[in-house]
Amino acid sequence: MAPVLVLCGPPAWAGAAPDGGDATEVVGLTGADSALLTLPPRRSPDRPMPVVLLLPDADGPGPRTELYGRRLLENGIALLELPGGEDPENGGLPPSGPPLAPLLAAIAADPRLDARQVALMALGEGARRILPGLAAGGPVAALVLLYPGCDAVLAGAARRVGGAPRILLLHGDEDAANDPGACAAVAGAFPAQREVRHRVLAGAGYGWDAYAMVRPGGAVLLPHPAGNGRRAWSQPDARTTEVAADRVLGFILAALAGR
Q: Which InterPro entries does this UniProt record tie to the protein (predicted)?
């Protein structure tokens, strides 16, 4: 069954608009999957909004995606946030990715959203879920991959991507789950005509945005993006998350503007 948009309540992190009203209008996506669509507080009723599909890491949406979502909403971009996925076996790709084509069709059917300005953003395991869905192409302006667990399997999936004209691959240089050489191979595996930006954050490890899960300076074990029951150490950092969120926002705004 194709996705259907239905009204839900606001997410826990949704803020208030300057006029005191709700900052976002939240929508659930029912069908094969469920999701939350959050609309920016400032929007024109006769001008459709760009939208970012956000796939969280394996632990699902929550505080780790909060800052990214806030930055997008503050800049007039709607946010369609999908649930977390399953633990992939044997270090491969997850068994099933989100139904990208129905999601894009649902966006096109909503007059508030601009189906010509859609970007994808994925964290950790979410990146491994979204790449297979891009093999057939699609009207996607940009793809953002944060610490996706770079390896030969992911590089193989990157070679088949056909639907993201601009790509940002961002990870830290102290991330054991994302070796810089392996990530360079993934970046180089995308089709030659794609504009790929491979960026490395100095001093950052895996899952820098999990700072709400630990005390300042603490560390936490997160699901490894390649799954198979493995875990990856994360020493989250709020400042690194702010830097990453700003880089992601700048990249998405430029891609949606065609720059």
A: AB_hydrolase_fold
DSSP 90-144: TTS--S----HHHHHHHHHH-TTEEEEEEEEEEETHHHHHHHHHTTT--S--EEE
Q: Rounded CA gap, 235 and 182, in Å?
A: 21
Indicate the pTM of the whole model: 0.84
Kindly tell me if the per-residue pLDDT of 50 is higher than 60: yes
Residues facing 30 on adjacent strands:
4
- Output the six-digit token pair for 68: 């990214």
Pairing relationship of beta strands 166-172 and 142-146 according to DSSP bridges: parallel
Token pair belonging to 135: 């093999």
Q: What is the pLDDT of residue 200?
A: 96
DSSP classification of residue 81: E
Say what the pLDDT of residue 196 is: 93
Residue 84 CB contacts under 8 Å (≥ 6 apart), including other chains: 56, 57, 58, 59, 60, 61, 125, 126
d(CA 81, CA 10): 12
Ordered by where they begin, the domains of the chain are 25-86+96-256 (3.40.50.1820)
